[in-house]
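Entry for 2-oxoglutaric acid complex. Fields follow.
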Amino acid sequence: MKDRNRLFFRTPDEIEERAYAEQGFLHLGRVLTDAGLEAMRTESMAAWRAEKGEFDPAKTWLQNSLLSDIHHRSAVVRDYYYRGPPVDVAQQLIGPNIKGVTSQLTFKMRGNTKAFGWHQDNGYGELEPYNSLTMLTALDDTDESNGCLWIVPASHQRGQIEPGLNLADKQAEKSIELVVDESTAIPVPMQAGEAIVFHCWMLHKSQGNFSPDRDRRILFLRYADADAVEVYNNRRPRIGPLLRGNTKFPEVERFESDLLQRDGK
Ligand SMILES: O=C(O)CCC(=O)C(=O)O
């Protein structure tokens, strides 16, 4: 994509690594330009409408709220996931060798009042080393009324709270609901085009969307060390596109290499 610089803002050369180490999250501020936000909304919504249609209370949470591998369906998301500010941030916080491990839309459209309970992202498929991170990019303004993120700052310092779900077991829609002392939890409102990054052990949740007229659309990306393995899956390598540096796993090196080369950068 030739106009990349018009879609994303430049990543700061140095982000606040110390605050991240202590608090487990960083609010990164605005990462998408107006043009980038518009393009990402347009492509994401086209994919969402084609796959999901309208919010339907009779459907499950998964059906209403999550669309996986969105970078296969949107060139703007792909460019952002493969080469945008999130990759620079991941490299600063994880190290030189980075792979992408998840790209999905987590949308909570108006009417979707279902909460997503307290969990660690490393509970949904435990990866090692324990430095993978999640980057949420808001495609709408999000606050307490439309189901913004809540976190417990510094909670990543407790480590892996439970072994986590075996994502290789696809039998059922399972979910984690940890019991958390909420007195230290804070909401994390974001404006459209802003992003937050948090550690794989960060305790977080979101409430339902109780706004009558505002959707809450979020792009969810996850990154890990290029050699990260799935603890729950006999320590096999997590397969994902190699975005920076090297990996000892040829299957990771090969993965999506056609897509990585296709955009010509
Ligand atoms: O989108 C949300 O409301 C929460 C998403 C989340 O916490 C997750 O997918 O880990």
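NOTE: The first strand starts at residue 25 and ends at 30.
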